[in-house]
């Protein structure tokens, strides 16, 4: 009997407030390693985001239009529960620095403790983007600096209109 092929589904969770070229690099590389990659925006009420979850999802959708095996979603549950729901076994995270590593190790160990079937894999940043974070982008955009090399074009437009309505911080 022919063995049924099990889809290899991975989840790339994060805040994506907003998605940067660093995230895009990880998304592109991870999408080649799995049958399906779910990019999942964490709906975390304790942070004070610039973009709403819906806006972040829409920006991700537009920025990843050219990648066929991508799904954009959001979640507010424990990540391991969400993984079950998606029937996914792999969590993808990116690492830029030793500081990221410490935080990511703690996160991966916690998730492993909650469900040892779930595997976290790490992708090293493209050195071009090792300094790049959503916070850096927001900081530059607040003062109307050029972010065209840092974010996909749709995000650049969205940032411009956000900060047009919001004056730079005093
Ligand atoms: P979170 O709040 O979950 O850290 P982020 O949106 O900041 O969400 O990041 C999501 C994931 O993407 C994290 O694993 C982070 O380390 C990774 N990441 C962010 N920026 C980069 C980058 N420039 N290069 C590689 N990985 C990155």
UniProtKB/TrEMBL annotation:
E.C. number(s) listed in UniProt: 2.7.7.3
Molecular-function GO term, any one: pantetheine-phosphate adenylyltransferase activity
Function of the protein: Reversibly transfers an adenylyl group from ATP to 4'-phosphopantetheine, yielding dephospho-CoA (dPCoA) and pyrophosphate.
Cell compartment(s), UniProt: Cytoplasm
Name recorded for this polypeptide: Phosphopantetheine adenylyltransferase
Binding site for substrate: 15, 47, 79, 93
Pfam hit, one: CTP_transf_like
GO (cellular component) term, any one: cytoplasm
Organism from which the protein derives: Paenibacillus lentus
């Amino acid at each position: 009997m022919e063995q049924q092929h099990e889809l290899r589904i991975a989840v790339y969770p994060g805040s994506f407030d907003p998605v940067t070229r660093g995230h895009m690099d990880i998304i592109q590389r991870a999408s080649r390693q799995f049958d399906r990659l779910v990019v999942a925006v964490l709906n975390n009420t304790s942070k004070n985001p610039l973009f709403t979850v819906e806006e972040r999802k829409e920006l991700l959708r537009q920025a990843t239009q050219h990648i066929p095996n991508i799904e954009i979603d959001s979640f507010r549950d424990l990540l391991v529960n969400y993984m079950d729901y998606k029937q996914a076994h792999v969590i993808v995270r990116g690492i830029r620095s030793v500081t990221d590593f410490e935080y990511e190790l703690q996160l991966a160990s916690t998730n492993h403790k909650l469900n040892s079937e779930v595997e976290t894999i790490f992708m090293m940043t493209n050195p071009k983007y090792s300094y790049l974070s959503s916070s850096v982008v927001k900081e530059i955009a607040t003062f109307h600096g050029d972010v065209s090399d840092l974010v996909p074009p749709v995000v650049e437009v969205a940032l411009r209109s956000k900060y047009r309505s919001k004056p730079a911080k005093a």
